[in-house]
Structures are given as C-alpha cells and as structure tokens.
Design brief:
Elements lengths: L9 H15 L10 E4 L2 H12 L7 E6 L5 H7 L6 E5 L7 H17 L19 E5 L13 H13 L2 E6 L6 E2 L7 H4 L7 H7 L15 E6 L11 E4 L2 H8 L2 H6 L4 H12 L2 H29 L14 E2 L2 E5 L6 H12 L4 E2 L16 E5 L5 H20 L9 H12 L11 H4 L4
Parallel strand pairs: 2-3, 2-4, 4-5, 5-7
Antiparallel strand pairs: 1-8, 6-9, 7-8, 10-12, 11-12
C-alpha cells in the first residue's frame, strides 16, 4: 500500500458524500470533491489553522462557550493563546448580537493598527488567510448539549461573510439523536435535525461560491468516526467548498506523509458501502444512548430539579450527543461540589470552569456541571445522580457562606486543568470513565 492521494481514499470520499447526502438532505447532493479525509476532528482543526490562519493577521479565535476544553490547546499551539475570545450561548445556541458587536470592535482595532495583510505566511494558491475563526459545536454541543437554531446558523454565516471569518464546526454528534422520550423511530433518527452550517454557507444568499466570493467559503465542517465507530480508527472527514477541501489536503503533513488514516479509510469505506455503519448507528448506538439519556434525565428530574438544579433547552423535539449541562443553585460552588462528590461518594463530575475560554472572563461557569451519560450503564447513571443529590442536599443544609470556603484553591485547580497545566486528563474526562461521568 502506498501513501494514498492527498484528499484521501476516493472510495471513502464517495461513500461519505452519499451517506451525508442521505442524512442531511441538503439542497443538491454532496460531491466527493467537497470532502477531504482527515485524521479526525482534532487533528484536522490543527490542519485548518496551519493552512488558513496567520497568528498575526488573524485577529481572534471566537469560541462559543461553554466550550470543548481540549480545543484550547490546539489554538494555543497555533499561536493564538492571547487571541481567544469567548462568545456566550443563548437559548438559540449563540448570542449573535454579542458576536456582531465584539467582532466589529476587533476589526476596527486591527485596521487602526494597520493589520491589513498576512505577515508570517506566504500567499499560496490553495489557501487563504482568514481574519477571524469562529469555533462551535452547534449540534448537541459539548458541553452544554444545546443545538443552535437554523436562524442562528444563517446569522452566523452572514457575520462570517461580513468579516472574512471561517466558521469551524465540530459536527461529531449529529447522528446520535433521538426524541426526548427515548422512543426511536427510524425515519426520524436517520435524518438530521437541522442543516449543518457548512450547508447553510453552501446555499444561503447566493452560496459560498457566489459571484464576488473567493471560492473558499466561510464554513468548514469537522466530522469524525470516533463517536460512531470508535476513537481508535483515527479517521474523519472535512467538507467545505471544493477549493477549501483541496486546501486542507495540501497541509504540509498530508503532502509529506500522504492521506491520514489511509488503511483504515478503506475499511470504513466498505462499512459505509454495505450500510453496516448506518445500521450500527440506528440499531445499536441511538437506542442505547436514548435509554441512558432517558434514565439520566428521569433521575435528574426526580432528585436534582427539586433541589433547584435547572437544564437548558428543555423543550426540544430531538435531543442527542453525550452530555447534559446542569446549572446549580447560585449559592452552590460547582468546583467545591465536584471535589466533595469525588472525596465523599466516589463520584466524578466535570465542573463548569473546565469549559471556560482561557484568558477571557466574559463567560464564567462557577455554578454549572457537565454530566456524560454515554459511558456508564443505566443502573450506574441513576446511582450517580442519587449520590450527587446527597452531596448537594448536604451543602444546601450548611449555613450560607460556608460553601464558598476553600473555593479559591479549587477554582485555581480547575483553571489550571482547563489550560492544560495539570498532568494527564482533566477531572471529568478520562478519569471520570472509571467511575460515573
């Protein structure tokens, strides 16, 4: 077996294009020339930053928050540690007016400083340098579990076009969906709940390849088989315009080493062609996760909601992903609750501070937790909520003010973990899998 084409195995690209066309049902089928095979969503985020950003010319990385915390180091490694900006969520998925206001300020500041052209990277025919990057997990978000509305997706594309921004979305949970009651209907579970932002960019207001555009578009989708087949396959896909997809394939590591995951790509192509992967999603993953989600939510409603805990977007017709986001009563400090749960009842949960954008105090989550229902069996999920409720009851029974005692040290530890300063994975990630969350 040789290195393989830069774009990736053609059989897999053709199979992915057909599979995505069936699931997302966009206006016009998706063509293989719009897809590059990648080494997964995380690896490809790094490739996108290498090819399409300049650490000086690119003004900011705008991150919808709370955010997937392990993406922070990828931005940091690409030279953007001082340019990360948090964008709050709202009930429709992103506070669009906040982004519009702040991105204009950033652009005005850049122009006042004479930042008008890339300084560190040469001009290349297969790439361009975007002025801004907007990063989001718009469907069943990690960590908040929210889904961005179609209206917000369209508004986001308009802002990206106005300010020469690239929207990079991790679309890794889209196929993991079900109704809130957990009753799976195959017709509903095999069709996307909302168009991807890359598909909105492709068709909205003349489309990404409209007259006057540069052909690269303003949105890229990061897809991955990690959540639906297995993390060890290390294979994903990146749809965009034809010009953008080719640019991703020309990242130096792919040009030197060949297509990522070339051998495994041929295996996955067969699974897609034979319909076995889709069957695994609809017959195994969706029903299993739906039962676990329903179990977790029932336990939350029974044990935590009466204690003042609340959840976002409770009126959705379709839910999915891996996570549930909890907002605690405001007198309960989440890092302290997390520590007490670990120390007193052997329960690990992820506190909201882990998902704060480093260096930006705009979006703080001192009273929030993220729970994962994907790993554990149903009986352990219910037991975990019962244990969490016991800890929360004990804290609520304490005199007001005592819960804030010793929280500065806990908060500092959480901030260090979110910045990657703590050796090994952050609490609530790999360690959590050996227990509950």
């Amino acid at each position: 077996m040789l290195y393989g084409p830069d774009w990736g195995d053609e059989r897999l690209r053709v199979a992915i294009a057909s599979w995505l066309s069936d699931f997302y049902n966009p206006a016009g089928s998706i063509h293989k020339d719009r897809i590059t095979v990648t080494g997964g969503a995380s690896q490809n985020l790094g490739c996108i930053l290498q090819t399409f950003t300049d650490p000086e010319y690119t003004r900011n990385i705008w991150i919808v928050s709370p955010a997937y915390m392990l993406a922070f180091r990828i931005f940091d490694d690409s030279g953007f540690s001082k340019k990360l900006r948090a964008v709050p969520e709202d009930e429709e998925g992103v506070d669009i007016e906040f982004l519009r206001r702040e991105i204009k300020k950033s652009e005005d500041d850049a122009m006042a400083k004479g930042n008008t052209k890339p300084l560190l990277k040469p001009s290349r025919p297969w790439s361009k340098m975007y002025k801004h990057i907007i990063y989001a997990v718009p469907t069943f978000s990690n960590p908040s579990s929210k889904t961005m509305t179609l209206r917000r997706r369209e508004e986001l594309v308009r802002i990206a076009r106005d300010y020469d921004a690239l929207i990079v979305t991790d679309d890794v949970y889209d196929q993991l969906q079900w109704p809130p009651d957990g009753k799976i209907q195959e017709s509903a579970s095999s069709t996307s709940v909302v168009p991807r932002i890359v598909d909105v960019d492709r068709t909205h207001d003349g489309g990404a390849e409209r007259d006057g555009g540069d052909g690269f578009g303003n949105a890229a989708s990061n897809g991955s088989f990690s959540k639906i087949l297995g993390p060890g396959v290390r294979t994903g896909w990146c749809p965009g315009t034809k010009k953008f997809a080719y640019g991703v394939s020309q990242t130096g590591t792919s040009r030197s080493g060949g297509a990522p995951s070339h051998l495994v790509a041929t295996f996955i192509a067969t699974l897609l062609e034979q319909g076995k992967l889709q069957n695994h999603i609809t017959k195994t993953l969706q029903p299993t996760y739906a039962r676990r989600f329903r179990t977790l939510m029932s336990a939350i409603q029974k044990h935590l909601v009466p204690l003042g805990v609340s959840l976002p977007q409770t009126d959705r017709k379709i839910v999915g992903g891996y996570f549930v986001w909890l907002d605690l009563p405001t007198r309960i400090n989440a890092p302290l609750l997390s520590r007490r749960a670990r120390d007193t009842v052997s329960l690990i949960v992820a506190e909201g501070a882990l998902f704060q954008v480093p260096g930006d105090k705009t979006c703080l989550f001192p009273y929030s937790l993220r729970l994962c229902f994907a790993w554990e069996e149903e009986e352990k999920l219910e037991e975990g909520i019962t244990r969490l409720a016991d800890v929360l009851k004990a804290m609520l029974a304490e005199p007001e003010g005592i819960n804030s005692r010793d929280t500065r040290r806990v908060k500092g530890q959480a901030e260090d973990e979110s910045k990657g300063k703590v050796d090994g994975p952050g609490r609530g990630e790999l360690h959590a899998r050996s227990k509950f969350w």
